[in-house]
Amino acid sequence: MNAVHTASLTPGPISVAIIEDDAPLRRLLGGWLKQAGNILIAGEFADTESALCDLPAKAPNVVLVDINLPGQDGIECVRQLKPQMAATQFVMLTVYEDAQRIFRSLAAGATGYLLKRASAQELLAAITAVHRGESPMSGSIARKVVASFQRELPRGEWQAKLGAREQEVLDLLCQGFLFKEIAERLGLSPFTVNAHIRSIYEKLHVHSRSQAVAKYLGV
């Protein structure tokens, strides 16, 4: 990761926790966050076990999670923390670009996936984005996700329950488009898109974008 110079974030403090076993990198990340001006560091942890013990009570807005943690990995960490921290957004930090880890992370409850070579500006922008409801990903990661949706996927029994418009909305939702962007692309009102998304969640028996993505991909 590159050095930080300046960053423009949305107003109001964002509480952020770090789960990273590499102590120098953990300190570097903490330094970036402190320089951002409107980020409060809610805690720093070196492994899943310590995060599970202390993090739920802190309830930060965003948690940065290294995938390759000792013991239980970062994906398992998110899987266990997300049910206890429904309002918290988890962003994976990793050197891995393979699709399986991406989709396992989404299935576990992560809403962002960044490579560790991301710059400080990219990281801080991702924290802002995920805090306002977006799903930030490094460019190369996003391309892999889009490529996966461009492949012909077998229709499961649950997919057959979706209408054609709901399928279009789900495709765009899974590619990372915001609700407003989906509305613009499909020529629908935001209210109609929200109605479609509520229907999709109900039919898939899920409660979030990440769960819908995981079910769509069968992970």
Note down, in words, how this protein is organized.
With 219 residues, this protein is α/β, with parallel strands linked by helices. It folds into two domains: 132 residues, Rossmann fold, CATH 3.40.50; 66 residues, Winged helix-like DNA-binding domain superfamily/Winged helix DNA-binding domain (Arc Repressor Mutant, subunit A). Helix content is 50%, strand content 13%. It has ten helices and five strands, in the order E-H-E-H-E-H-E-H-E-H-H-H-H-H-H. It has a five-stranded parallel beta sheet, sandwiched between helices. Helix 4 links the parallel strand 4 and strand 5. The protein is globular and about 50 Å long. It starts with 13 loop residues before the first strand and ends with a helix. The N terminus is likely disordered.
Most strands sheet: 5 strands, parallel
Distance between the termini: 30 Å
At the third CATH level, what is the topology name of the largest domain? Rossmann fold
Q: What is the CATH C-level name of the largest domain? A: Alpha Beta
Helix content: 40-55%
Rg over C-alpha atoms, rounded to the nearest angstrom: 17 Å
Nearest-integer average pLDDT: 82
